[in-house]
Write a structure and sequence with these properties.
single chain; 250 residues; alpha/beta; Rossmann fold; SIR2/SIRT2 'Small Domain'; 2 domains; 6-stranded parallel beta sheet; 3-stranded antiparallel beta sheet; binds adenosine-5-diphosphoribose
């Protein structure tokens, strides 16, 4: 099956990748559902909704500081690296991700669409201030304050991620749908496929006559429309696909 998928990707006119939390699991970042999922331990409505933030911004910031610290310890794993390599080889034209962990960017992926924002970006709850704060300021200011404040207007800052019940960033969502309509192959990696509108992306490729390849350790809501299902860990399967593609391209 790896050989078939490698040939499919090499011969594709416009192949893209769509990723979820599962691609970062082997970097040590907990997923949301399934075994050890975050939403098994915490209630999303208490931590990842605008109402929760209004009700208890300190608690929500505690949760995000915990996640930021966990993600700062994480490194891209072989799955992220393989996708970045396939982009450099011209095989993968874009990565559309639901993840906010910045690991695709760190791995070197350039054409990256982040549908749910980025945990290293903060934005003001009042004015249009937005800042990508991965460095010093994050560690010595943002993470030190109980309630980080906007340097522009003094209002409360929030993580620039999409919470339940919030709209996705329009530019990114439109671009993701445009790319999906154009794709003849999509490789879906490490997502339960349960959260919309992001989960529409593989369906748009399917409905446009494209081929869906899924990489997951277990069945997901996408599996029913997958033409190829590669059961396994992303960090093991993706490097095998990249290796086969390198062999084919010799
Ligand atoms: N390799 C491949 N797949 C894996 C691995 C792995 N090592 N580990 C877990 N998975 C799979 C799981 O089987 C599951 O299908 O990754 C998927 C993770 O699903 P979720 O935890 O639901 O994550 P995701 O699909 O990204 O969630 C979508 O929900 O909470 C919101 O905004 C959040 O972006 C997130 C969205």
């Amino acid at each position: 099956m790896i050989k078939e998928v490698a040939r499919l990707l090499v011969s594709a006119k416009f192949a893209i990748a769509f990723t979820g939390a599962g691609i970062s699991a082997e970097s040590g970042i907990p997923t949301f559902r399934g075994k050890n999922g975050l939403w098994n331990r915490y209630r999303p409505e208490e931590l990842a909704t605008p109402e929760a933030f209004k009700r208890n911004p300190k608690l929500v910031w505690e949760f995000y500081k915990w996640r930021i610290k966990k993600i700062l310890e994480a490194r891209p794993n072989p799955a992220h690296m393989a996708l970045a390599e396939l982009e450099k080889l011209g095989i993968i034209k874009a990565v559309i991700t639901q993840n906010v962990d910045d690991l695709h960017r760190e791995a070197g992926t350039e054409n990256l669409i982040e549908l749910h924002g980025n945990i290293f970006r903060v934005r003001c709850t009042k004015c249009d201030f937005k800042e990508y704060v991965k460095g010093k300021r994050l560690l010595e200011e943002i993470l030190e304050e109980d309630l980080p404040k906007c340097p522009n207007c003094g209002s409360l800052l929030r993580p620039d991620v999409v919470w339940f019940g919030e709209p996705l960033p329009e530019k990114e969502l439109n671009e993701a749908f445009r790319l999906a309509e154009k794709s003849d192959v999509i490789i879906v990696i490490g997502t339960s496929g349960l959260v919309y509108p992001a989960a529409y992306v593989p369906y748009i490729v399917k409905e446009s006559g494209g081929t869906v390849v899924e990489v997951n350790i277990e069945n997901s809501a996408i599996t029913p429309i997958a033409d190829f299902f590669l059961k396994g860990k992303a960090g093991e399967v993706l490097p095998k696909i990249a290796q086969e593609i390198r062999r084919l391209s010799k």
